[in-house]
Design brief:
The structure holds two protein chains of two kinds.
Chain A: E1 9-13, H1 34-46, E2 51-54, E3 62-63, E4 66-67, H2 78-88, E5 93-99, H3 105-118, E6 123-128, H4 133-136, H5 150-165, E7 173-176, E8 181-183, E9 190-194, E10 199-203, E11 215-218, H6 223-232, E12 235-238, H7 243-256, E13 268-273, E14 275-277, H8 281-295, H9 298-309, E15 335-336, H10 347-361, H11 365-372, E16 378-380, H12 382-394, E17 400-403, H13 413-425, H14 438-442
Helix pairs in contact in A: 2-3, 3-5, 5-6, 9-11, 12-13
Chain B: E1 10-15, H1 38-50, E2 55-58, H2 85-92, E3 100-106, H3 112-125, E4 131-135, H4 140-146, H5 160-185, E5 192-195, E6 200-202, E7 212-213, E8 218-219, E9 234-238, H6 242-251, E10 254-257, H7 262-278, E11 287-296, H8 300-314, E12 323-327, H9 329-340, E13 346-351, H10 354-371, H11 384-387
Parallel strand pairs in B: 1-2, 1-13, 2-3, 3-4, 4-9, 9-10, 10-11, 11-12, 11-13
Antiparallel strand pairs in B: 5-6, 7-8
Helix pairs in contact in B: 1-10, 3-5, 5-6, 6-7, 9-10
The chains are: A alpha/beta, B alpha/beta.
Amino acid sequence: MSKPLKQIHLAAHFPGVNNTTVWSDPAAGSHIEFSSFVHFARTAERAKFDFLFLAEGLRLREQGGQIYDLDVVGRPDTFTVLAALAAVTDRLGLTGTINSTFNEPYEVARQFASLDHLSDGRSAWNVVTSWDAFTGENFRRGGFLPQEERYSRAKEFLATATELFDSWRGDEILADQATGAFLRDAAAGAFVHRGQHFDIHGRFNVPRSPQGRPVIFQAGDSEEGREFAASSADAIFSRYATLKEGQAFYTDVKSRLARYGRRPDQLLILPAATFVLGDTDQEAAELAREVRRQQVSGATAIKHLEFVWNRDLSAYDPEGPLPDVDPVVSEEHISRGRAQVRMYRDPVAIAREWRQLAEANKWSIRDLVINTGNRQTFIGSPATVARTINDFVQSDASDGFILVPHITPGGLDPFADKVVPLLQEQGVFRADYEGTTLRDHLGLAHPDAPAGTEPAPERAAS
Amino acid sequence: MSSTTPAPLHLAVALDGTGWHPASWREPVARPRDLFTAGYWADLVTEAERGLLDFVTFEDGLGPQSSLLLAPDERTDQVRGRLDAVLIASRVAPLTRRIGLVPTVVTTHTEPFHISKAIATLDYVSAGRAGVRVRTTARPDEAAHFGRRTIPRIDGFDDPDAQQVVADLFDEAADYVEVVRRLWDSWEDDAEIRDAATGRFVDRDKLHYIDFEGRFFSVKGPSITPRPPQGQPLVTALAHRTLPYRLVARQADIGYVTPRDAEQARAIVAEIRAEQEAAGRAGETLHVFGDLVVLLDDSRAEAEARRDRLDALAGEPYTGDAAIFTGTAAQLADLLEELASGGLTGFRLRPAVAGHDLPRITRDLVPELQRRRRFRDAYEAGTLRGLLGLTRPANRYAAA
C-alpha cells in the first residue's frame, strides 16, 4: 500500500534585509511602508498560506567598519507590524522572529500572548539567539552572553515564557456582573522561576490566549539547535532546500523527537526556498540568470568576496580575476551583525577552490559569486515548480516551504496565482482554511493547560 | 473671528479596561468578557474617532492592576489582566484614519531601542498618527517580574530615600526618551537612495550613530527602522509634581496634569513653563492637558446617582489622582473652559465607564464644544502632530 499523500505547508517570508531581495527592480516597492506588508499578507492569505514570516535584525550590519549599504537596509518592528496585519487578514498565521538574548521573558510573553489575543490565535514565535557584543551595544545589557551560553539562555528563556503562558489556565475570568467576581481566584497568573539565567516571580498579567501559547519556531542548525528544536519547537525554519540534504536533515531531526516523548508529526520541517517562475522551464531558467545578475552587482560581488577573504578588496575589479592574496584568518571578522559569519569555516581552502573554479570556467569575480552563490531553489514553469515542491514533500525532504520572493511586495503574486492552484488540484494543498488558528493550519494540537483545569469557556465573539 | 475668541481645545480620551471606575466592568454596557479581543478596542477607538478627538491613550503596566499604589493586591472583584498597549494601538491603526494612537510604555524595565522602533512602526502603520505616553514604575513586584534590578519598597514619598529612588526613575525616563528621540532621527529622511548606478541602497552618511552614554545605559544606534512619517512621534507623560513636571518640560510634547481648579492649573502651567524655559525649549510647542475622570449624563443628579451606584458596587468611594466630574455635557464644557483659562490647552478625559461615558463625550460634549466654537468640526490634519499644531521637526543630525 502506498503512503497517503502528505499535505504541504506553505509560508511567505517578507523579502527585506536579505541578499536575495532585488531592490533595484522597477517593480520593487518599499520594505517599510505598511502598504507593502498589506499587499504581501493579502496575497499569502488569498493563496491560503499557513503563515507570513518576519525576520529580525537588531543592529544594522557593517562591513569593514562601515554600515553595509548594498542590500536593503532597515526594517520595521516585528510585533507592531504583525499586530497591524492581524487587522487586515483573518486566517493567515503571523510569525515573528524575536531574539531571546536582548529581551526579557515577561515582556516577550506579554507581547506574544497579546498578539495571539489580537489575532484570534494566529501568532508564532521564531526563537533566535545571538551573543555578539556588536548587537549588544544597542541594549541596556550590552553583549553580556558568552557564545556557548546562548542556547542555554534561549532554552531557559522559552521555558520561562512557557511558564508565563501557562500561568493562566484559561478559566480564571468569570466577569460575573451579577456577583461581582471578575476573577475566579486571586492567584491568576502567579509564577515563580528560579534558574541560571532568570530568577523571577510574581503575576503574569495577560490571560491565556486562544492558542494557549504561540507556535514555536526554531531556526538554528547546530547540534544544540537541533536538540533545542526536538525538545521544544513546533516547527523548524531550516536552510536545507536540496533533496538529499533536506532528507538527511529531516530524518536526523525527526529521529530526535522520540527522546522527548514526541511524535514525528509534532515538529514540522520548513526550509526557506526561493523561486523563479516562467511560462516555460527555459524562460524561467533565463529569468533566473537575470535575477542572479540583479542580486549580485559588481559591488556586491566584491563585498561577498571580502566576506570570505576577511580583508579589504575594494581595489579589485569585479569583472577581473580573483585576488591572488589569501584570506585573513582571524577571530576578528570584517563583517558584523550577520548570522552567516560562521558559515565559512576554512576560508583559505574555499579561496583555493574558488580560484580553480574561476580559472577553469574563465569566470570574473562577479561570475564566480553569481555561480557559486545561492541559486534559486525552484526554477521552472508553474507545473514544474508545483511538481518539484510536491515531490520534495512526499519524499520527506520537508513538510513544506517558507518561500522568500525576491521582489517586495508583489513577488509572491505569481506563485499564488499560478502554482498554488496546481497544488490544490493535486489535492496536496488546502483549497480553503479549515480552522481558524495557526495551530489548526499546521495540524498541531492546542497545548493542554496545566493540570487541574476545567475546559476554557467559550470566547466571546469580537 | 474676533481677536478675543479663545483657541479651540484639544480633546483626548484615556482608555483603560472597561473604564476608570473600578466597578465599571459591572455596568451592562461594559463588555468585560470582550476586554481581551481586538473588536472591543476597535469599537472604542472608532467611537473616539467619530467624535473627532485628537487621540486616545492606552494604559499599560508590567504587572496586574492593583487597588494599592505600589504593590499588587489580592482582589478578585476588579478587572485584572491587560494586553500590551503598543500592540492594541497597532491592531486598531488600520481600522481608523485620523485619530492619534498613544500607547503607554514603562521606561523602567524596557529597552529604549525596542520601544523607539515600535513607536516608529506604529507611526508607519497609522500613517503618522503615533505617540507614546511614558511612565515609570516603582513597584517592587514589577521589578521582580524582570529580575534585573531591585526597587526598594517605598512607604511614603516624603522619605528622602524614596525621593532618591523616584528621582532616579525619572532621570532614567528622561535618558530613555532622549535615546528614543535620537533613534527616530538616526536616519535622515532621504537616507534611502536606491542608487542603481553605484549599487547602494542607502547613503550611509545619512545614517547616524546616536552614541548615547548615560548613568543607566548606553545605546549605539542607528535604529533599524527609518525615520517615521512624523519625524518625531508625540511624547507625552502624566505629571503630578515637580520631578515629572521637569520630565514633561524637558522631553515631552504633551504633559497631562491634574489640577482641581483654574488657579491650580495656572500654578502648574507656570511651573512647567519655567522648567521649559530653563530647558531651553521656550520656543517649542508644549501642550499641558488637564486630566479629568468624567461621568456624563442628562442631569447632574443622574450622573451622581450613577457614581453612587458604582461606588456602592466597588465597596468604597472612587478617588484618584485626577478630579472626578459628574454632570451634563454642558456643565463639563463650562468646567473645561474655566480650567483652560488657567493655561491648559486641552484635556485628557478618563471615562468612568468606557461604554457609557465615551459615547457621551463624542455625542454630547463634542457637539456642545463645537457650538461654543471651542472644538474642531472636522479633522484638519492628517497626522497627530498636525492636529496638535506641531510642525514636522527638522532632523537633529541633518546638516543644516
